[in-house]
Amino acid sequence: MRLNENILLLGKKVVLVPYTSEHVPRYHEWMKSEELQRLTASEPLTLEQEYSMQESWREDADKCTFIVLDAEKWQAQPRTTEESCMAGDVNLFLTDPGDPSLGEIEVMIAEPSCRGKGFGTEAALMMMSYVSKLGLTKFEAKIGQGNEPSIRMFRKLHFEQVAVSSVFQEVTLRLTVTEHERQWLLEQTSHVQEKCYRDGLSESC
Question: How many CB atoms lie within 10 A of CB 192?
Answer without folding.
Answer: 17
